[in-house]
Design brief:
403 residues; alpha/beta; Beta-Lactamase; Rossmann fold; 2 domains; eight-stranded mixed sheet
């Protein structure tokens, strides 16, 4: 006898309990019911001790605590929001549901917003290109904030709870959400939302926005046309993903592009663009698929161009190996403070993969043809330098700006 009072013998059937999407459990197994409930609740212990929500519960602006051993969730969340579906956006606005982002919906829908930050209860900020600005009119208490965090994580197919207090998910339209729960964040639940442009930007758009000039655009287009391997570097929020997507969109239409990302963010306008995304392990620690494995899988898919959305660990070994074995036209991004800091950053990642500095240096010089470094000053993002990687007289990897 299970603690829920339901005797489990084979594919047990539940004759009376509805599932979260309103289907009768007469045609669903016990495990299917629990799985739906798990996804809607965001995980946690004692999952069978809490009643399933009514299928017709209306959306509520204020989330009240639910009875049970884990935090409340918004019973107005619909199954369509869970899989990331959104209604058509109005002119110049993102398609978001009010029940999807709650009190943050208007901020997320703003076409000029690039980031929305929630630093605990009653502290909401939005970046519209001029740095984070406080929004005093938006107030969310800790109960509602935690419920929103759980709902957003579930909408991205992942769970967040005390056992797994940090999660990074991608929603529809390339929206990226990062969540941190207490006690990891003593001030309360933290939510960081990265918002891509409503429409993907081309290189010409970036020229108009001041990220690069016409000469730099033509230089980058020449590198793409000649199938040179590119590494786009910069600090967080400098536009690395935006620039890389614009460069890949300029590739010939007959070329097959396969991108590997931790959280799929690249929005490439290309008929043969394919994206692979990592998968978080379940609560039992099984089922995880990391970047290192996905790079190997991508190589088996016959890519004309292999792209690593963000190189940040041992996967640098597979990427450099691929770029040195005939996979020209590849690209990736890397966090670095300046062009001249790129070699040290690569060496640190190579150490994680068991590569010596000498081995990494030779592979990097051979496999990476150009480094495009971005910077952000105030609200402006732009190309700071275009350089290359070379070996100095002592055989050390160094970066030099191209003339």
């Amino acid at each position: 006898m299970h603690r829920s009072g339901i005797r489990r013998r084979g594919p047990a059937r539940l004759p009376t309990v509805p599932t979260v999407n309103g289907e009768s459990s007469e045609t669903r197994s016990f495990d299917d019911v629990v799985r739906d409930w798990w996804r809607s609740a965001g995980g946690g212990e004692g999952i069978l001790d809490v009643p399933l929500p009514p299928a017709t519960s209306p959306p509520t602006a204020v989330v009240e605590p639910a009875a049970g051993p884990f935090p409340a969730f918004d019973r107005g969340w619909s199954s369509s929001a869970a899989v990331g579906h959104a209604p058509p956006a109005g002119p110049g606005r993102r398609g978001v549901r009010a029940e999807e982002f709650g009190a943050l919906a208007d901020l997320v829908a703003d076409p000029d917003a690039t980031d929305v930050f929630v630093n605990g209860p009653e502290q909401v900020l939005v970046d519209r290109g001029r740095g984070p600005e406080r929004r005093h009119a938006v107030v969310i208490d800790e109960v509602g904030l935690r419920a929103l965090a759980v709902r957003l994580a579930a909408a991205g197919g992942r769970h967040v709870d005390e056992a797994n207090p940090c999660v990074d998910v991608r929603l529809h339209d390339g929206i990226r959400v990062h969540v941190v729960l207490p006690p990891i964040s003593p001030a309360g639940t933290l939510i960081s939302i990265r918002l891509p442009r409503v429409a993907p930007l081309s290189l010409d758009d970036l020229v108009g926005g001041g990220m690069l000039d016409a000469v730099e655009r033509d230089r980058l287009l020449d590198l793409v046309a000649r199938r040179r391997n590119l590494l786009v570097t910069g600090a967080g929020g400098t536009g690395k993903t935006t620039l890389l997507a614009a460069l890949l969109s300029a590739a010939p239409e007959h070329e097959r592009i396969i991108a590997v990302e931790d959280v799929a963010e690249l929005r490439v306008v290309h008929p043969q663009f394919v994206a692979l995304e990592t998968r978080q392990a379940n609560i039992e620690g099984a089922g995880g698929v990391g970047l290192e494995r996905l790079v190997r899988e991508a190589l088996r898919m016959r890519p004309d161009r292999l792209v690593l959305g963000e190189c940040r660990g041992a996967e640098v070994r597979e990427l450099l190996s691929a770029l040195n074995t005939g996979h020209d036209g590849g690209a990736g991004t890397l966090h670095a403070n300046s062009l001249h800091d790129v070699p040290a950053r690569l060496e640190a990642l190579g150490a994680l993969a068991g590569m010596t500095p000498e081995a990494l240096a030779r592979q990097a010089v051979s496999g990476i043809d150009a480094v495009v470094h971005l910077e952000r000053r105030g609200g402006d993002r732009r190309i700071a330098a275009i350089g290359g990687l070379v070996l100095d007289g002592r055989g050390h990897l160094v970066a030099r700006e191209l003339p």
